[in-house]
Amino acid sequence: MITAGPTREYIDPVRFISNPSTGKMGYALAEEAKKRGAEVILISGPTQISPPNRVKAVFVNSAIQMNKQVNKYFPQADIIIGASAVSDFRPVKKQKLKIKKNSKSKFVINLTKNPDILAGLGKKKHNKIIVGFALETDNIEKNALRKLAKKNLDLIVVNNATQEGAGFATDTNIVTVFDKNGNKTALSKMSKTKLAVKIFDIVRRI
Ligand code: C5P
Predict the structure, then answer these.
(1) Is 19 a catalytic residue?
(2) What is the distance in A from the centroid of ligand 1 to the CA of 127?
(3) Read out DSSP for 111-122?
(4) Radius of gyration for the alpha carbons in the chain, expressed in angstroms and rounded
(5) Are strands 41-44 and 56-59 parallel, antiparallel or unpaired?
(6) What is the pTM of this model?
(7) pLDDT tens readout for residues 61-116
(8) Among residues 44, 102, 144, 146, which one has the fewest Cβ atoms lying within 10 Å of its Cβ?
(9) For residue 32, which phi and psi values (nearest 5 degrees)?
(10) Domain boundaries in the chain?
(11) 95, 91, 83, 70: which is closest to 8 by C-alpha?
(12) What CA dihedral angle connects 57, 156, 133 and 189, to 10 degrees?
């Protein structure tokens, strides 16, 4: 099971909080898993790209919806890769009608924390392999290792958002992979398609 893309947290019927995730990394992982003979369930936020052929794709908008679908399919999965960019917060309340401009020069939206989907799966891990992604701008290794432990992951793939050709909305990525046994693999800049191959090579060695 692979999660991909952003989530949308609606403020009113026509406005939402989101991020520039394209879903490319998650879709590339889904394609590679399929090539290797896996049965693939792709849980995807809204994207502009088509899911690979012969992959079961489930589309969601919000983090709450993604959490529900991911937990539904969890028992069937052997390997779970969280490549989605989940919004950390959502509006406390979605307004039923479009919010109108008013005379006030400030407008406040109250936000509440979304569930950490991967951490939730980590709590009921059993013998499943769980892989997370992280986007960091500072203290890369320290933050990555903290997330690996906190979410009970087997592997974390970290991209340094300050490097050119890494992170959101690019066709390439530059990552370092840390596993729970203390191994570290720094990979050079490569396409997300090629990176998907490398990630599954590392997953096989766990
Ligand atoms: O904590 P952080 O957002 O940096 O962690 C990133 C990893 O956790 C990614 O694999 C992402 O898909 C996952 N995540 C999640 N639910 C959240 C936030 C992040 O599953 N609410």
Answers:
(1) yes
(2) 20
(3) EEEPP-HHHHHH
(4) 17
(5) parallel
(6) 0.95
(7) 999 999 999 999 999 999 999 999 999 999 999 999 999 887 778 889 999 999 99
(8) 102
(9) -65, -40
(10) 2-87+110-204
(11) 91
(12) -110
> Which residue, 136, 132, 144, is CA-closest to 184?
144
Q: Taking CB atoms and a 6 Å cutoff, what residues make up the pocket around ligand 1?
A: 3, 63, 82, 84, 86, 88, 114, 116-118, 132-134, 147
Ligand 1 centroid to Cα of residue 115, in Å, is 9
By alpha-carbon position, which residue is closest to atom 2 of ligand 1? 134
| CATH 3.30.70.940 matches 2-87+110-204 | no
Report the DSSP beta bridge partners of residue 102: none
Q: Are 32 and 52 in contact (CB under 8 A)?
A: no
Coil, strand or helix at 91: strand
- For 157, the enclosing helix (H) or strand (E) is strand 155-160
Number of H helices, E strands in the chain: 5, 14
* Residue 116 alpha carbon to ligand 1 centre in Å: 6
What the block records as the tokens of 45 is 């936020």
Q: Per residue in 22-74, pLDDT tens?
A: 999 999 999 999 999 999 999 999 999 999 999 999 999 999 999 999 999 99
